[in-house]
Request: fold
Amino acid sequence: MAPRKLAAGNWKMNGDLAALAEIDLLREAYPDPGCEVLICPPALLVHPMKERVGAHKMTVGGQDCHANASGAHTGDISAVQLKDAGAAYVILGHSERRADHGETDADVAAKAAAAHGAGLIAIICVGETEAQRDADETLAVIGAQLAGSLPDGASAANTVIAYEPVWAIGTGRTPTNEQIAEVHAFMREQLQGRVSDAGDVALLYGGSVKPGNATEIFAIAHVDGALVGGASLKAADFGGIISALEAAG
Ligand SMILES: O=C[C@H](O)COP(=O)(O)O
Reply:
């Protein structure tokens, strides 16, 4: 098995029922996409989006889950509930959750274990801040986040890793191709010994991916797709990224 090719959209706290019209546009433009296409809308939209996707092979995911399957956790959503609503994936440990909700690597590992238990594929996010990159700590930070956030039992079938430099998210700035290549090769190496099929785990790049830079980014070794924020909100933009991934070797 080779790593899955995945164009993943993260709508973050954007979108409403009317925005599901974008799904119709994607279905029409890509009736049989040559890569996996995933959209992770706000939790309220997971079920209606899945209904809108219908028989199309596009998948839907959550943006977070609780580590427990149920219980007294007001405002939280479990992996089991996401699965029940039609999700196939869940994003975990996004830097916005690490910053806004104080999520630690151990929290992310527990959530990923819950996701796996519920039959969801966990997209585990890692990435350095600008200060950490300036201090030449990038690989140490990524190595520690990976080691702490990967649960036992992670495999290419149930886990995807997304490298998202915090300073590149929503800023229009991206690392150089060499910087992305260095981190992705490092992540591949770090997975050895932790995951039996480390060579087959999909590694996504995320942070200001647009139709205009996607082709270049997908040509970098060990980049198997993208986790896209702003440019996933409109089918016209996300479509450009899907097309670039379809065309990537
Ligand atoms: O999860 C997606 C990332 O945070 C990237 O967001 P962006 O594409 O808006 O920079």
Observations:
- The pocket of glyceraldehyde-3-phosphate is lined by residues 10, 94, 164, 169-170, 206-209, 227-231 (CB under 6 Å).
- The longest strand covers residues 121-126.
- The radius of gyration is 17 Å.
- Residues 177-191 form the longest helix (15 residues).
